[in-house]
Recover the amino acids of this structure.
């Protein structure tokens, strides 16, 4: 199956996303920002619609809109007294609604739109793959460079302030990184499902990892395993790739939960 060019592109894109999405997901879950990731994914529909209407690349338009929405949430959190959940709900549902209205202006069947909504192996072109690989490499380098600072911000902002960590700059960078990473994953997993790969691997790893370093490592390993096994199963049984990848993750999650419950019941006196 990996002799086929489109499967090679899907595998390379999936491995890159299976690395950066769970890595970022560790900090997203620690900061209780799961709703933020889901909101970003839905807001990118506006970027996709703009790209389709103008003839510009929907993928690049979605990247721009995703980063813009992330920056808007960051600024409004600090300039207003509105809670972050409320801001995310207003901005990202607004982006989703804008995308639906714009798409209604374009008549006829839109295969590009469907590939963004549900993900598609065939939709990943060589240009898309190049963008995903380069952007993932940049995101990974930034995460490794500021790993200690991001960890401290996620665990204890007051201590980070005492150590003179540039909180505002790093918070802004983190918001934009999450937005861009989610948009990168939309092409393979779809708007509806992409945030799951941000959340499920770290959630599983939390139940198993004995330390913070192993939490990151196990999250990344889980993400890569879900990508590879999901692609293989989707090809073998002619299933949607994005949905199959996430279902593998969900099944794994429940298996780990059941095994943990069974183990804890055995250890009880």
């Amino acid at each position: 199956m990996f002799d086929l060019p489109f499967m090679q592109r899907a595998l390379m894109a999936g491995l890159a996303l299976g690395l950066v999405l769970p890595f970022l997901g560790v900090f997203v879950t620690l900061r209780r920002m799961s709703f933020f990731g889901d909101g970003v994914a839905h807001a990118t529909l506006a970027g996709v619609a703009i790209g389709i209407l103008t003839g510009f690349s929907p993928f690049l338009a979605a990247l721009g809109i995703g980063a813009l929405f992330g920056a808007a949430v960051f600024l409004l959190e600090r300039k207003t007294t509105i809670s972050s959940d409320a801001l995310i709900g207003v901005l990202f549902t607004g982006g989703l609604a804008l995308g639906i209205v714009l798409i209604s202006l374009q008549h006829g069947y839109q295969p590009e739109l469907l590939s963004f909504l549900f993900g598609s192996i065939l939709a990943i072109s060589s240009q898309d793959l190049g963008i995903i690989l380069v952007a993932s490499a940049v995101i990974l380098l930034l995460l490794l460079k500021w790993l200690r600072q991001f960890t401290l911000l996620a665990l204890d902002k007051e201590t980070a302030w005492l150590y003179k960590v540039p909180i505002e700059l790093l918070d802004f960078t983190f918001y934009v990184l999450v937005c861009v990473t989610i948009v990168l994953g939309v092409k393979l997993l779809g708007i509806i499902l992409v945030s799951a790969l941000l959340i499920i691997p770290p959630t599983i790893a939390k139940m198993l990892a004995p330390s913070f370093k192993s939490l990151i490592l196990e999250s990344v390993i889980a993400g890569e395993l879900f990508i590879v096994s999901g692609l293989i199963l989707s090809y073998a049984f002619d299933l949607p790739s994005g949905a199959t990848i996430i279902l593998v993750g969900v099944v794994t999650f429940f298996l780990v939960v059941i095994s943990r419950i069974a183990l804890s019941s055995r250890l009880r006196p």
